[in-house]
Amino acid sequence: MSTVPVALDLRICPACGDRASCPQADGDTLWCAVCGHRWPFRRLPLFALTGPSAGGKSTVGPKLAQRLAGEAVVLEQDVLWTGALRDDVPGNPAFRGAWLRMAAMLHQNGRPVVLCGTVAPQELEPLPERVFFSEVHYLALVADDDTLRRRLRARPAWREWDEPRIEEMLEFNLWIRGQVESIDTTDARLGDVVTAVEDWVRSRIGSDLATLHDPSVRTRSS
């Protein structure tokens, strides 16, 4: 008996080949608005480790990847900050949409993604690709203004952290504290911050870990 293949790019219908600009999902089932075909997919939670630049994301990320090896995939979002994805549209929807599609494809391998990068819920939640995830959890790494200034000024020149840009990041630092759960890294030890983020991820994966490697079991929302 022949079977219909499932495309890794979840926007593409495996039956008619249409590429949806606005994917349609009903729980953990995708459906094509053109031909009506329906097919299952892994709808896992996405973890967004956000916060201002110099808050500690790039330092915590490699350690977190070691801790969560085999359970989650930890990625740095700036790796795609290039070419046509680096646009001037507020919120950078092309860039963030590409990352959501990438994360959703990785989820089909059975492990949730922890995406490290400066992002706010308002930049992800309205995107069409949001339907690929059961939840998007946000955690910000923040610090006091003096610490962020010192860290940003110490960065190499190619990062182009001039004073106006630093002040903009300090405004974001203040703003994101009121939007999502946060961890202050000003005086915290690296190991303690990594452990706190690890615990945050694990507590939200919860019982879903038991089903991640079983494609016959429908993934529950965290």
Automatic annotation (TrEMBL):
Which Pfam families is this protein grouped with? AAA_33
Question: Origin organism of this chain?
Answer: Amycolatopsis silviterrae
User: Which InterPro entries has this protein been placed in?
Assistant: P-loop_NTPase
| Gene3D superfamilies registered for this protein in UniProt | P-loop containing nucleotide triphosphate hydrolases
Name of the protein described by the UniProt record: AAA family ATPase
Write down the SUPFAM superfamilies for this protein, in alphabetical order: P-loop containing nucleoside triphosphate hydrolases
- Source organism, top-level taxon: Bacteria
